[in-house]
# Entry
Amino acid sequence: MIITIARQCGCMGDQIGKALAEKYFIPFYDKDAVCRLAKEKGLYEKYPYFYGEMPLDMMLYADTMAGDDTSDNGKTPRKAMADIIGNENCVVVGRCGNNAFRHREDVISVFLTGNKEKRAELIEKKHNVSPKKAAKIVEDTDLRRRSYHNYYTGEEWGNAEYYDICIDVSKVGEDGALRLIEAYINETGVL
# Structure
């Protein structure tokens, strides 16, 4: 089983992903772990913009220089993630996981969303920043994630059509989100 988690900033994606990995005794891969694994396998330089989540303007510049169009249509996520994870069971946060592993019958793709003000409050506490700075972090991070996902997949980030389950974490909290995901896994018989 592979669980992919896409999330808006401030929706506790890492905490929820780690809790699911612990519950199901499978590895957890966030951005840092994916980058580390790609470097260990000598693949990071093959897809540095993808693994490193480079800003869209840098990706577009690189593509323009290479003569490519401005959409990847899922080729890079599928290849880059397959090269480092293969058929391993795991939890993957970000990296267009819902698209990269869509071909697997045992994939559960999750999108975490929430009220922008509540997400900013969480970021304010987590990073000990001002409310204004936290709101800016949420806005900028969401924009970067949306641009990154849309560029690499040609799909609208956060559109329920591309995920198995979408959860408003600001309404149900971390524990509620975990219960909903676990119930979905049990109901689908993926395990």
About this structure: Confidence is low (pLDDT under 50) at residues 58-70. The two ends are 7 Å apart (CA to CA). The first helix runs from residue 13 to 24.
